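Task 17 of the worksheet. Students: predict the tertiary structure of the chain below and write it out as structure tokens. Keep your answer in the requested format; marks are given for formatting as well as content.
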Amino acid sequence: MFESVIKGTIGEFKTKLTQNLLLDHKKYHIFNNVIIPVNKEKTQIDHIIVSKNGIFVIETKKRTGWIFGTEKESQWTVTYYNNYKVRFPNPLHQNYKHTMSLAEHLGVDHSKIHSLIVFWGECEFKTKMPPNVVKGISEFLRFITSKKEYLITDEETDSICQKLKIIKDNTSFFDGINHAIELKNKYDSIYFCPRCGGKLVERIATRGKNVGNTFLGCENFPKCRYIKD
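Model answer:
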């Protein structure tokens, strides 16, 4: 159960370490693992960087393998080097919810927020990605420092940082862990077979009317013949 939580934590730690070591703290104000209340629910943001050049909302992903996905697709795919495939939610869509929630909570215009997706690990993009989907330290820093236009005043920066500090002061480490586990349980139906608990893997139909089409089936086939509709 905790494997995906641990992988996510590793990616977040690398991003946090990079920020702390390589960004000018006088210019960039860094907040990690921020949980924003959204109506009766909560949304967790891996990293927020506040500067006069805007607010950067960063979603981190730890992956190994080939990454396939487009801006509009609801699910992306990682293909491991043994040809094992796993689908995961489009991180751009995930982060859009984060940016909208943060804009509403802080009372700032959404246009002042930059969404950034950072992949860590030995992965390779196999489809063309937009500029705000990057891999590794150099691309991460290049995106942050590429924003030159002033979008936020000094007074607004101070006010935003104070609001985020209050949120952090009222959030414990275990709040973040519990939220990550809740999310994993919520999305388990995408990845795991409801009959036997095995992983759902992408397969290609070799016969019948759907020959050539892809589908999600249980990894324990032929013992388990579950197919996700």
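Marker's comment: The first strand starts at residue 29 and ends at 38. Confidence is low (pLDDT under 50) at residues 1-8.
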